[in-house]
Amino acid sequence: MPESAPESVPESAPESAEQPAFPDTAAGTHLTLYPASAGTLMLRWHLEPGLAEEARAAFGRAAPVATIRLLRLDVSAPPRIQASASVGAIEHWSDGDALYDYGGDGEFLAELGLGTADGGWVLLARSNRCRSVAATSLARPETKLQVTSGPVAEQSTESVTERVTAPVRCPIPESVTATEPDPEPEPEPESEPEQKSAPAKKPEPERKPEVRAGSGPLRRPASAQGFELDAELLVHGGAAPGTLLDLGGHAYRVGPGGRFSFRLPLRERALILRLLAGVPHLPVLSRARPGEGVHGPGRDSNQDSSMHIIIATPECAPVAKAGGLGDFAHGLSRELALQGHRVEIVLPRYDSLRLDRIDGLRKVFADLWVPYHDGHVRCDVEHGEVDGISCYFIEPHSEQAFFRRGRIYGEPDDPVRFAFYARALLEFLFKSGRQPDIIHCNDWQTGLVPVLLYEVYARLGMDRTRVCFTLHNVGYQGWTDDQVLRVNGLDVERLMTADRLRDPGNPDAVNLLKGGIVFSNFVTTVSPRYAWEVQHTEQGYGLQSLLLQYDDKFGGVLNGIDGDMWNPQTDPLIPAPYGPETLERKARNRSALRERLRLADGPKPVVSVVSRLDRQKGVELIRHGIFYALEQGCQFVLLGSALEPALQAEFAQIARELETHPDCHLELGYDEELAHLIYAAADMILIPSVYEPCGLTQMIAMRYGCVPVVRRVGGLADTVFDANYSDRPFAERNGYVFDDFTPAGLESALGRAIGLWRRHPEYFRQLRLNGMRADHSWAQPAQHYQAIYRHIRVQRSDGVD
Known about the structure:
This protein is α/β, with parallel strands linked by helices. Helix content is 24%, strand content 23%.
């Protein structure tokens, strides 16, 4: 792939005479390294408490803690790690003996390596663009993962240190998608648009200042592209005896001495990749509890056996679907079953069920009497198969008519309805003799399941079952009064405390989501980025401190999509199936869409939106995107509707205004066949969400060769990598990303996408292919969940003390 002319970006910012002095950071910092998700490590700098106070005094803010995501680990000779900062995560950067502010939204590329200084090891980090070298001491190990190394040849070399006071980006012209110059350039496409040659750079003055860490210079081999890492990755630390760690799918239980240590040769690619593929977010998968047995290193004895898994969910596509949770329950369950596990879904027997999608529905348990209030409620349980998945449907017969409301959600007594569902589910498992290995709960509607399991049913013999709890949207928490606990036989005084179910914002309210978090053995969200957001931003909706408190059992696992339903090569709902090798057939689907919606035919890109129209989805920017795309000479197609009457009326008015426009059509409803056709026909899809826990739309669009233009939040940030500014290889870049929730932010990304479509169609075609070839199936998420299930199986069932 040809190199492009770089934008004019200064090599470094000028030094400021007002930069506050800061003590020797290397003497009081340490570094921890831990898996964050598949293919991702996290590095975190910490300052000792004394230095943290001085930092607060010098910079007027809290103690600096920098978090960096290592997105690629290249262990070829010479080994090199390339890193990029998580957006919004890095506050300060340690450079020599001072700290510099990156403003909270910086991106940078850096080479990381190890060197020696004053007899001790230090981490070296060099920015690719501004060439600053930072040093961080590794002399203070912590009880997580520590990086050390063997000897590095000491040779004199040139080092350059320059202060950086602004984010450093990988500057690529907006009309060209190119990577940074690399020793191994990307393969060129078959045909390339003409490129202007890059202007010659002025030679940099020769400088040889020392980088100080302690009192010694840092050195690296002069011939190396990066910093030499010619030894091992030593993973060591301390933890309570019996704590269970994960090493790339292997269970390792800390011995009686409380210390652990692994050595991984950096040249052993397979071992490193296994570490990278570990359970998301933290290597500590369970904490030891008093009286828990201690075992030596090795695999868990049950790790290779199949498991009995109950999926507790208020939704399951296609029989009871209100949103993405229905797709999650269906997709994960089917993949787990395909991988050899006994999987059963248990959900309410709504009167709105799609009975036509259930095979062999029959009553299997009559007269299930569920304790409730001062008596019992009689229930029946039916069984059937949904796309081969075993499903049970619980139908209560009571005057409250819990699930005979014509819809899944939206009733004033929803907390009461789903609290009863939680009790009925466990009563069914108990009385039918089931004792599953795992109950996988989902959202606040199932938050009372782990509470009831450990407060009631574990004492009745269900003490082997463990709970994984997935948060799909933390904005909905199931607030109610304490009567919901009383009627389900729970001790209100015991549970209505700050460390259990009492809502942090309302001391008189029960928070069902909080109960699920506290009582579950492991808690996940539906993307790694969203896991960070709910801990550190307003997206936690008051539960930030709780999620940080339970950080050792919390992580993010990215959702998948149904590869059978969303497959352009076999999709029966589109007129011209196609794949990466037959991408030119996508044009036939575009013609079919234009004919169906009466749009003009011509050489214009089709920009689309397939979405609910609500505040979370960024309706203000969707509205702006319609008119911006038309102004730029594009066609625009929207499929979606709003529950909020004012929003529905607003978009209906826009639809009337543009009804005769030859390049625009707004379909205010939902049509499954039209959705498939839009994905197959459109060139770009706009997803400007305010927040997005995971998002399936962008993954479906990429599967169909439709380039996503998204805001960098939640799962969108974990799946869409900017064509111009991502640090990933070009083969992994697949869309356009913006940060600011403003019209200008949207235009910055959508404008670049439109420009590339027009001026460099071969590059745009490659973006399509990159997205189509990515694996967004349920196979990898299911592997992550299996690892979590296996690790929590060894925990005791004490509940919450």
